[in-house]
Design goal:
Blueprint lengths: L1 E2 L2 E3 L2 H12 L10 E3 L5 H12 L4 E4 L26 E6 L12 E3 L4 H5 L10 E5 L12 E4 L8 H6 L2 E5 L1 H4 L7 E3 L19 E7 L5 E7 L9 H18 L8 H11 L5 H25 L15
Parallel strand pairs: 1-10, 2-3, 3-4, 4-5, 5-6, 6-7, 7-8, 8-10
Antiparallel strand pairs: 9-12, 11-12
Length: 312
Amino acid sequence: MKYYPYLRGRQVELVLLGKMAEEHLLSSDIVPIIEPVRDYSLTLRTLEKLCRAQQTFYLVDTPKVGQYYLSEQPKYPYEEFFAEPQCLRALHYTGQPTFSAEPDLLIYPFDFLASRKLAPPADFNGKQLLPALAQPADFPPERLIVGESPFHFQKLADYQKMPDEFFSNTLMYFDHKALAGVSDFLLGPARYIEKSYPRPGLVLHLTYQDPFGNLRIRHFVSAVIDSFQAPKERFFEAMTQVRQWCARHPLYAPKTAALRELEDYFARRAFPGMPGIKRLTWQHHLEVVAALLAQRNGTMKGETDENDDETS
């Protein structure tokens, strides 16, 4: 089983993937799905880094959100990457019987009811990504990727009331069904948001594995939540809670490279910026999931399962 994080190709997501590829932090159990949403050179540079790192990924050839799909003649086209063995083609599936180019992955609508109305295409041997509970009963499980969206934005006051909550048990629950894997939007919603706006206060979302194999998420909220001022101080307030929680729960708090980098910022009294915080908390989540899968699959970073070919 593998993890297929679905990333929209915005700057933070691309910087995240490029940096993890350069530092060889992406496990062979993680296969990113990238949907280009902006027409800029950073997309191409990131895809080049993934290919150089021998990191398998899916590239959505039919983006449906953002600005890229509106461009008739993109300035930075990505089609040449489909010639690379690491770059696999993904398409949004709307029920069409034929395809202009044979895909390796079909992505069904994220809406459960819309997906249930679509019949699987005949004679298609690639993988298919469907929402949980929308899978055809007779579909080969080894070609099925279960999609979910467990993260939900809330007000900071609500995070304070419930600082620790269940995130997902999909990896554990579906492990015995021999599925290809699971997919989600990391620490973001399924609904695409073109532009985010600042809000008062600050929260750090960190996932961890509990003793039962479930993924849980801890919300570390700054002491001040009603002011836009001094985001650097709000970061230090939240990181103080992170350090205290890690000291109290050393078995739960995974020492990921991302968490160590956040602690380094705190120790130097430096501020990574809001994009940097998002990148590092998302990287932390990827590292936590990779460790969980390594326990189940018996793989470590850089190892490849010779019996698990994405194109088969």
